[in-house]
Ribosomal protein L11 methyltransferase
Amino acid sequence: MSWQSVTLAATADEAERLSDALMEAGALSVSIEDAAAGTAAEAPIFGEPGMPADELWRDNKVLALFAQTADVTAILTEAAQAAGFTVPAYRIERVAEQDWVRLTQAEFDPIRISERLWVIPSWHAAPDGAAINLKLDPGLAFGTGSHPTTRLCLQWLDSHIAGGERVLDYGCGSGILAIAALKFGAGCACGVDIDPQAVTTAQDNARNNAVQADFYLPDATPTAPVDIVIANILTNPLLALAPLLASACRHDGRIVLSGILVEQVDKVIAAYASWFDISLWHAEDGWACLAGTKRP
């Protein structure tokens, strides 16, 4: 059995109405994504502290899945009429039947982060038993080591954790950075995320890696300043969170920021320059990692 996947362009005003209409007209599933994701125009995620509470992005992609036999053109016409506008530009792709579990697992091999650090999915044996091996499966929260921004943060921790530090991972996703910090010798580590599912996933990952890390929603974040604040999110949230992240870092403490496109580096440095001596640490595949020290 196969399916038909349809991608449509939609404004913020159109996306939700179109999504509802598509479900009513027979779509098997519908999702909405930021059309500018991965570019300098990428918008902040929903509910980020300090950011305007926009309901949707300005430019959206509506993705709908249909049965192989569905008359997609007729369904789109019906849905657009129900939503009150003409059919937007769209493309149709065939989605073949797959063993999705095996296919997904085949896409995730052990990832070597540094000389002593690997990220290992649960269905693989560790290539180097003597290394620090983080057990982490791809799931509902961002952070498996496959993305350059996560690798850069892990590499920074590997080269800078001396032992005993207090670490805060803001926007923790899977919890990988807090867990890795503890494996490298940090004294304690906690993570914060706006997504309850990420908090739950991070807690599970900490248990699976036999470390004691605490994870919170933003309102429950501990207030005591830490030695290292690390945030791998996106540029717009990082700009809005600058005062909060600065207050979370002790004087002479360090901050590490990633999720930043190279062309956005100067903007982020300027936002944090009031508190930190901060600069580009490393970049990979167009993504940057900044690091700095908080001034007394």
About this structure: Residues 46-53 have pLDDT under 50 and may be disordered.
